[in-house]
Design brief:
Elements: H1 28-43, E1 48-50, E2 60-63, E3 80-90, E4 94-101, E5 104-114, E6 116-122, E7 128-134, H2 135-148, E8 163-165, H3 166-174, E9 184-185
Parallel strand pairs: 4-9
Antiparallel strand pairs: 1-2, 2-3, 3-6, 4-5, 5-8, 6-7
């Protein structure tokens, strides 16, 4: 497996820069970065990660939903690299869900996101793809897409009342309530 890459933390100005399109998908540096992002999201027990989080100013993200210790109810899917992704359309309906971020450790936020989105992107071979994402996986994509635009989930909460520490989240949300939808601790 590829080496992991350190994840930038909130306050690093690289997290706030808008990412540039990937010009050559088959470039060895792009393929290596994809492998490193896959290793990093796996080793961190995240469900998604974006290139800006590791200091790479490229429009590249990984959606990697899977059940694990942090997300026992997460839907399983193959980790999917998405290059130059776009939101093609979205539902009118938004739902609030808890999110965390590898770049914002120790804090969770209740974030409104579209329940369903249609996305277009290039896969790692450069082939165009289009698919509809719903619920938890749609939330992951939107969270990671925000990183490409220079945003973090804290920018999306309606109120500071919608923020909670990771410890309180574990105590109140995970331990105290039956889980009907997995919490999104995306990257």
């Amino acid at each position: 497996m590829a080496d992991t890459i350190p994840v930038l933390q909130l306050g690093d100005p690289k997290l706030r820069a808008r990412s540039q399109p990937v010009s050559f998908v088959q470039d060895a540096s792009v393929q290596t970065l994809i492998d490193q992002l896959l290793a990093t999201v796996h080793d961190s027990n995240g469900v998604g990660i974006a290139a800006p989080q590791v200091g790479k100013n490229l429009r590249l993200l990984i959606v990697a939903s899977r059940p694990n210790l942090r997300y026992p109810d997460a839907p399983a899917m193959a980790p999917t690299p998405m290059i130059n992704p776009q939101i093609v359309s979205h539902s009118a309906e938004q739902v609030k869900g808890w999110e965390g971020c590898l770049s914002v450790p120790g804090i969770r936020g209740l974030v409104p996101r579209y329940r369903q989105i249609e996305v277009g992107y290039l896969d790692r071979t450069g082939q165009p793809q289009q698919q509809v994402l719903t619920d938890f996986v749609a939330r992951i994509f939107q969270h990671e897409y925000d990183h490409l635009e220079g945003h973090v989930f804290l920018d999306r909460v309606d109120s500071t009342q919608d923020l909670i520490s990771e410890a309180e989240y574990q105590k109140r949300v995970i331990d105290a309530l039956p889980c009907t939808q997995p919490a999104a601790d995306t990257a």
